[in-house]
Amino acid sequence: MQSPTYLAEGLRLPTNALDYTILAIYFVVVLGIGFAARRSVKTSLDFFLSGRSLPAWVTGLAFVAANLGATEILGMAATGAQYGVAVTHWYWIGAIPAMVFLGLVMMPFYYGSKVRSVPEFLLQRFDKSAHLLSSVLFAFAAILIAGVNLYALAIVVEALLGWPQWVAIVVAGFFVLAYITIGGLSSAIYNEVLQFFVILAALIPLSILGLKKVGGWDGLTDSLTESHGDNFLSAWGGTGIGDPNPLGANWLTIVLGLGFVLGFGYWTTNFAEVQRALSAKNLSAAKRTPLIAAFPKIFIVFVVMIPGLVAAVLVPKIGTAGSDLQYNDAIPYLMQELLPNGVLGIAVTGLLAAFMAGMAANVSSFNTVFTTDIWQRYVAKDRDDAYYLKFGRLITAIGVLASIGTAFIASSFSNIMSYLQTLFSFFNVPMFVVFIIGMFWKRASMKSGVWGLVAGTTAAMVNYFWIYKQGVIDIPSDQGANFVSAIVGFVAGAVVMVVVTLFTAPKPEAELAGLVYGTKSPGMEEAPEEGDDAWYRKPALLGWGAVVLAALCYLPYSF
Amino acid sequence: MSDLHREVSDLETKSATAARLFDIRRIIGGLFVIYGVIVTIAGVFASDDDLKKAQDVNINLWTGLAMLVLGLFFLVWLKLRPVKPGPVPEGAAPGRGAE
């Protein structure tokens, strides 16, 4: 089998010693953070959740950075080049409402119940079958995604810097292995915060120069209106039900599928994200984690969308058979065209840092789930804490090696990999329905959890692979089909949960304390820390502020 | 109280992160000051080719200065608002950090 070329030939960057110095300094700092964090790791809780003691601004920036992996950055710039301003949907409706909901509504149950992972919440609320199913699937998916990330890094590094793929895979894998094994989650989170600033230092100059090149925002919109039509620069233009548009989705599937089901499924139940909030130092900081993250998230779309749009102007044929460049090449192409040595080094560093952070987020959530949810719960119970700490370090190393292996497999069987990724993505959908019903309906029975998960996943897959792929119903694009599948999975999961609940036993009320809306968890009456009652730290204000701001951002692109 | 609640609370009292983890502001500040200086110098000595490539903007100079400012901001913030030493939870004082 042959791997498809991800980046075009001829994207080699004119890097020099200055750029490599900047890159080398970064690698030294990354390792330094790992070693410096080592002395703070005394218990397994330090290793897996930073001892639940980090301040909100750190966990908040890590929350947004964990999602700001390079596949996300290159992918969203590609979406911008392909679909235009519609890419903002992935941010303003696909992320912000879900992040605010996580912070304001769900966090008291997550953080207050003291669970250490998302699957552990399912164990407390439902039963072992729901727990085991979600733990095992999450562990597999995390390794798979880490491996795919590593493979993507290797391709980009090969194209931009000329390193052979295996060198990039081994070097990046080694650094991630070293700093997480040594410093645990604190090390991963600190590196994410650093990566957040470095990637912005790369993308902001790139966007500014890109705009200058095409004659500013006016020049950009004029050229794109001429070549791609009005709707390319409008978020909602052409999304009436039945109207054709390149996204293949209408306003209803965007709001319900992307915004409600996919967005909420990802942001509220993906442990790689939620873990950052669980490591905050108190409930107030945990609630503020996704809310603080929401504000940069609102604006990051501009520094990925603008390079995408600029690339669509400079290379009108991008992504078509007539061009060497794929949509994914938008950012590397502009780096090559616009950045002189110096800032170029920052940009290369930012991109590599983003790849490693994307991988590290998966590895650091994998080791937690594997150790506390699988090993400690079902294999080696009741050992002392030092044992689980040691095991956590071991499984981190094994996890990284497994994802290095996955990356090598991906390089020869990339079709299988993308197929598997689609498969796992359907598991996220029913997770959200199970959580939301579990948190708000006391009666939802112990067995309803696992059946909701199974039914929702199956329904989403049947819709995608059979009804859509076999052409039973005509949906214009993969994206559109994805949105519809998510809605189908959500509804099927909800219906099955209700039906199963009617025929099976509820969880004893005493065991639901702190897990369901309207109950209180014991011991959570801790007094708020000094200063947490300042007006700018009020979760409700932050949350609603973010929602209003995202809605306002839509205005200039809606009419 | 559930077993999980007890287990995690117990680990929290033994945790060393709050007391021993360094402050990330020092690292961000230091790295961005170094990067800022390097990139600013590259901007001061920018060649005509560099300027032409970057649309006649001395992007190294501006980016370098901005990074320098960000780095200094973190160092000043650290100086003005150092983290108070981690609170020692009640009843855990003797064991904390000494095992």
Automatic annotation (TrEMBL), chain A:
Keywords: Membrane, Transmembrane, Transmembrane helix. PROSITE patterns: NA_SOLUT_SYMP_3. The keyword Hydrolase does not apply. It is found in: Membrane. It is a multi-pass membrane protein. The keyword Magnesium does not apply. Belongs to the sodium:solute symporter (SSF) (TC 2.A.21) family. This is Sodium:solute symporter. It comes from Streptomyces poonensis. The lineage of its organism: Bacteria, Bacillati, Actinomycetota, Actinomycetes, Kitasatosporales.
UniProtKB/TrEMBL annotation, chain B:
The keyword Transmembrane helix applies. It comes from Streptomyces poonensis. This is Uncharacterized protein. The chain crosses the membrane at residues 27-47, 59-78. Keywords: Membrane, Transmembrane, Transmembrane helix.
